[in-house]
Amino acid sequence: MPLPKTQPSTSRSPARATIADVAREAGVSKATVSRFLNHRETLLTPDIAARVEVAVAALAYSPSPMARALKRGRSRLIGLVVADVTNPFSVAVLRGAEKACQQAGYLLMLFNLGNDSQRECEAIQALAAYQVEGFILNTLGRDAGAAADAARLGKPVVLVDRRHHNMQADFVSLDNAGAVQLGARHLVDAGYRELLFVSEPIRNVSSRMERDAAFRSFIGDAAPELPGLQGRTFESTEDNGDALDNALRDQRQRAGGRLAGLISSNAVVTLRVVASLARLGWQLGTDLGLVGFDDTEWSPFIGPGLTTIAQPTDELGRLAANCLMERLQGLDLPPRQILLSGRLLPRGSSVPASPAIFSAT
Amino acid sequence: MPLPKTQPSTSRSPARATIADVAREAGVSKATVSRFLNHRETLLTPDIAARVEVAVAALAYSPSPMARALKRGRSRLIGLVVADVTNPFSVAVLRGAEKACQQAGYLLMLFNLGNDSQRECEAIQALAAYQVEGFILNTLGRDAGAAADAARLGKPVVLVDRRHHNMQADFVSLDNAGAVQLGARHLVDAGYRELLFVSEPIRNVSSRMERDAAFRSFIGDAAPELPGLQGRTFESTEDNGDALDNALRDQRQRAGGRLAGLISSNAVVTLRVVASLARLGWQLGTDLGLVGFDDTEWSPFIGPGLTTIAQPTDELGRLAANCLMERLQGLDLPPRQILLSGRLLPRGSSVPASPAIFSAT
DNA sequence: TTGTAAGCGTTATCAA
DNA sequence: TTGATAACGCTTACAA
After folding, report:
1. Which terminus of chain A has a lower count of CB atoms within 10 Å, N or C?
2. CA distance B222 to chain A (A)
3. Answer CATH for A77-175+314-341 from 3.40.30.10, 3.20.20.410, 3.10.290.10, 3.40.50.2300
């Protein structure tokens, strides 16, 4: 069956103008054009400059970043590696980073690990091949070679949310310890005494370890002054809702007359807990007090509203990108750590006797 | 204050090996190395090939995509322009596209419009400058020049979710008409008769227009056979919750004894409706039947569970990327339209007398 | 102040 | 079958 041809390839246009075209058009040398573009205010005869300007405009010329990169080694490209684009946190980072990069005239090259941390090295290699000038990494750093690679390439690196072991790089993250304190203190103040900290499998992910440790130390520190305060931790996996159900039942039993409260370490876990509660037929707040990491658009509308600890996600992304930009501009400081505070948003899920089913914030 | 210097710039490594290095190492010419790499099976003396292979391995050589792009004009880069990375739908597309690209050995360059459709042109220009081989566009196409640009550049384009006017390009999207039918029919079958279709401001966005039109035509078609069926539409804006509240009150009043049902055109609108319901103190299902476009992880946990129309988002992204890959491999067909069906996920919000508050799916 | 020419890392053409 | 050599589009000594 004969099919009509499409035109895309047909109407192939007068290809992009090159610097040579501009030079010819303006009746000058390529070097002059290049100077006009790059060393703006340095050396120009008004007459010539004007001619070049006209030619550039006439041909709608813009220099090829590729050729530029080849020559100068600088590409105006930033490599962003995320562990999982599905993760809202990664997306927030991405968004902040993309914005900052765009403003600084950089473009983002994206590599998604799809949670396969083995590919970290591959990602960095691939990006490096394109001469990216720096990296923003939101990965686990489990792939030992990756860190080494990035460092060896001598390109600046900013780590977001998750530290890499042995890697000297700027690090931007939530103040995990502070945030856990905030949440735990809130639950305790509301009267909850039997606390459970539910995390995704910790597996050496730095942010998870920090939150877990902070919870334990909160319990340790607060126990003396608070009679009956107890804390436990639980690692929840995606496919094992039963285990979580049991952990919750256990906890409530252990609580006896006291109030049971829970801190979930991120939005994914929060959702699992909510699902578990639905299965158990428990009421948020009364049967179980809940504070969850990560404020989401839907938090206010689950049950009596979910009390959350909001991360300044946009800021994190923005700061990460800005850190990188500063390094690219030559800032030479030892690795920095930028820790941002979380913000507690109290809603119905941490009120022992929740009055209404619906209550937005 | 004297600060210790960091090492990143210190330990600058023996820069990437070039093809010349390999040639020297192997004692052959650059051309030979190039042939070894590119025209694999064509012409090689076993001895030479082996030497080159060793040298490549020894120097961990991999060709510079930049230089390659400069020479051949092909960059193994795909440009992805999204209207708004915040939008979960865009993220899904991004994810699918990124995966397919990676598999095909392409890297993604990302440009986020941040909902500023004026910058579409800028995005395409910037990406084109980097010699991207094709575009995946999830934008409104309001910037007239953009479409023209892309076409003029003679690079293949795939549109996702939103059509551009006057642009001959592959198009991948949900079957909006079918999906609306699905949702509306479901509400009607459940007994709802006074229907409201709530959309974001339509503004010529093709997917919004299609859904709106489909709703109207459903009402027109179904009215004769269904006594008392009424349908209206409403455009909801971010900052005007009051208007939505009023629309809902109006609708219920108009319903009188009949049941009032609502279709929200995407997850953002769904959340607005849920918020409005919370303000009004209405119960989902009983006071208002709800079917929302876009199934989300949290849908099962809002009130009695939200009935949704799930889009095959991953598939959409994947197909978009694959379309592009096919074009890049030379497929020369007229523009295709790929429409995927939505899937209805019935939950409590479309059950007139909802029994339990919590009920997961 | 401007032009000439070399070279960034490839690939492609042409001889050998 | 292999090796010079000339581009690709740009920047930058160096020369004029």
Report:
1. N
2. 33
3. 3.40.50.2300
- In terms of C-beta density within 10 A (0-12 exposed, 13-18 middle, 19 or more buried), how is residue A57 classed? exposed
The beta-carbon neighbor of B301 closest among A275, A332, A335 is A275
Determine whether the interchain pair B129/A358 forms a contact, defined as Cβ–Cβ distance below 8 Å: no
Across chain B, where does the E strand assignment appear?
A: 77-82, 107-112, 134-138, 157-160, 170-174, 192-199, 230-235, 259-264, 289-293, 307-310, 337-340, 343-345
Q: Which residue shows structure tokens 């489909």?
A: B214
**Domains A77-175+314-341 and A176-312+344-350 fall in the same CATH topology:** yes
> Between the CA of residue A175 and those of A179, A214, A232, B255, what are the distances in Å?
6, 10, 21, 52
Q: What is the mean pLDDT of residues A105-130?
A: 90
What is the C-alpha to C-alpha distance for residues B208 and B211, in angstroms, rounded to an integer? 5
Whether the CB-CB separation of B351 and B285 falls below 8 Å is answered with yes
Q: What is the CATH number of domain A176-312+344-350?
A: 3.40.50.2300
- The C-alpha atoms of residue A189 and residue A195 are separated, in whole angstroms, by 12
The answer to whether A108 faces chain B, any CB pair under 8 Å, is yes
A335 reaches B (C-beta below 8 A): yes
Confidence of residue A344 (pLDDT cuts 50, 70, 90): very high
CB contact under 8 A, B152 and A11: yes
Tell me which residue in B12, B129, B335 faces A64 most closely, judged by beta carbons: B129
Across the interface, whether the CB atoms of B110 and A108 are under 8 A apart is answered: yes
pLDDT band at B12 (very low <50, low <70, confident <90, very high): very low
pLDDT digit string, tens, across residues B252-302: 999 999 999 999 999 999 999 999 999 999 999 999 999 999 999 999 999
Which range is most confident: A44-53, A208-217, B79-88? A208-217
Q: How many CB pairs under 8 A join A and B?
A: 179
Which residue has the least CA–C1' distance to nucleotide D3? B29
Cβ–Cβ below 8 Å for A281 and B358: yes
* Strand partners for A192: A259
Residues of chain A with Cβ-Cβ distance to B292 below 8 Å are: none
Segment A205-227, tens digit of pLDDT: 899 999 999 999 999 999 999 98
The domain ranges of chain B are 19-63, 77-175+314-341, 176-312+344-350
Q: What is the pTM of this model?
A: 0.87
B154–A13 CB contact, under 8 Å: yes
Q: Gap from A44 CA to C1 C1', in Å?
A: 7
Residue of A nearest to B114 (CA): A99
- The whole-number pLDDT of residue B154 equals 82
CATH number given to B19-63: 1.10.260.40
As a whole number of angstroms, the distance between CA A158 and CA A322 comes to 10
